[in-house]
Predict the 3D structure of the following.
Amino acid sequence: MFDGFDALLLARIQFAFTVSFHFIFPAFSIGLASFLAVLEGLWLKTGKPLYLDLFKYWLKIFAIAFAMGVVSGIVMSYQFGTNWSVFSDVAGPVIGPLMAYEVLTAFFLEAGFLGVMLFGMERVGKKLHFAATLMVAVGTCISAFWILSVNSWMHTPVGYEMGANGQFLPGPSWWTIVFNPSFPYRLVHTVLAAFITTAFVVGGVGAFHLIKDRTNTHARKMFSMAMWMAALVVPVQIFAGDMHGLNTLEHQPQKVMAMEGHYESHPDGAPLYLFGIPNDKEQRLDYAVGIPKLSSLILKHDLDAPLAGLDTIPDDEQPPVAIVFWSFRIMIAVGFAMLGVGMWSLLARWRGKLYEWSWLHRAALVMAPSGFVAVLAGWITTEVGRQPYVIYNLLRTEDAASPLAAPAVGASLVAFVVVYFFVFGAGVWYILHLMRKAPHAGEYGVKRGDKGPIRTAGITPGLTQDPSDETTKDLSGSKQEPEERP
C-alpha cells in the first residue's frame, strides 16, 4: 500500500510523530519534578500537611508521565539506526558522546533516586527523601541540558573537524561543541516552557476543582501557586523568546524569514505580518495583514532597519514557509493568552477574588493544555525551519536517511501510530482520571503492592502466605498445609 510513497517523507513523518509524542511528557515531567520538590520543601519547612497531601497527589501523576516519557524516548534512539543511519554514521562521533553523557549524568541519576522518591517516604528519613526528590528534579534538568545541546549543535554546528571518511569529528574543545551559539538561548527557552506547561496543568486542575467546590483548600493552594508561576514566569519567557529569536536571526536567517513571511526583502523597514497565506510557488504572502515596519523594530530595534527576504535564498534551501509561518503564530498566540491569564490572576488576587471569579477559573481550565500546544508549535517552528538540512548548512535531510524502501518505513509508521494511540492513550486517560479526583487530606500517594515484591522461592506458585499462621491460601481462599523445605 506504500509503494507509491516517498520513503524519505515517511521517515520524516515517523520521526515527527514519535518525537511529538515524546516531547509532551518531558515538557510536563521537568516542571512537575521541580514542583514536587517545592511542595516537599514547603512541607518540611512549615510542617503543614496540606503540602504533603499535594505532593502525594501529584506524585502519582508524575510517576505515570515519567514512565511514558522514558518509553517514548527509547523508540527514537532506535530510529537513528533504522531510518537515519547515514546521519548516525557521519554525526555519531559528536552526537553519540553527548547523548551518552545524558544517560550517565541524568537518566542514571533520575532512575537511581526515583524509587526512593516514589516508595521511600515511610522507609527513609524526611531529609533523605527530600534529597531524592531534589535529585530527580535536578536529573530532569540535566537531561534537558544534554538533549538540547545535541539539538542546538545540529542548528549551529561548531567545534568540529571533518574526517577523511566524511565524518564530523570533535575538535580540540568539547565545551565549544556543548555550548554552541544557540544552546544557551534554546535551553532557557525550553526549560521555562516546561515550567509554564506544568503551571497551567496544575492551575487547570485546581480551577476544575474550584468550580466544583470553592472551599477546597487543596485546590485553592495549587491554583494560587500555579497562577503565581503564570504571572511571573510568562513575561520572562516572552523576553527569553525574543532573545532566542535574535540569535536565530543571526545564525539561521532563512528560518526567521519563513517565520515572518518575508518573501521579499525590505530595505526601508519590514512589516510585521499578523496573518496571510504563504504562497511558495509565487513567492509571496497572499491576503497579508501586517503592521508597517514593526518587524524591523522587533528584530533590529530600528523602524527603518533593512531586512532581507527569501528572495535572497535559493529555492532549494528555503524551509516550508507555510508550516513555519503558522506554527510560529500559534506559539505566539498561545503565549500571549497565557500572559493574559497570568495578568488576570494578579488582578483577581489584588482584589481578593482569586478564588471567587468563576470566569477566571473557567479560563484557567481551558488553558490547561495550552503549554503542550505551545511547546509543540515551537518545536515545529524550530525543526521545520531548519529544513532542508538536518545539520544546518552541512548535511541535507535527504542525504541523512537510510536506503530503505517505502513499504518498510510505512509499515513501521502504521505500527507506531496504532501502538502509541493505544498505549499512551490509556496512560493519558488514567492521568486525567487521577486529576478528576479532588485532592484531599490524607492522600496516600504511590502505593506498593500489599504483599511486596514477587518472590521466586519460598512459597508454592499460586499460593499466598497467611500472616496469622503457618498455612497458606490458594487463590480461592482455601487453606493448605505448608510444604516441607530443605
About this structure: The beta strands are 160-162, 168-170, 272-279, 284-291, 389-391, 395-396, 463-465, 472-474, 479-480. Residues 7-436 form one domain. The two ends are 62 Å apart (CA to CA). Residues 163 and 169 are 6 Å apart (CA to CA).
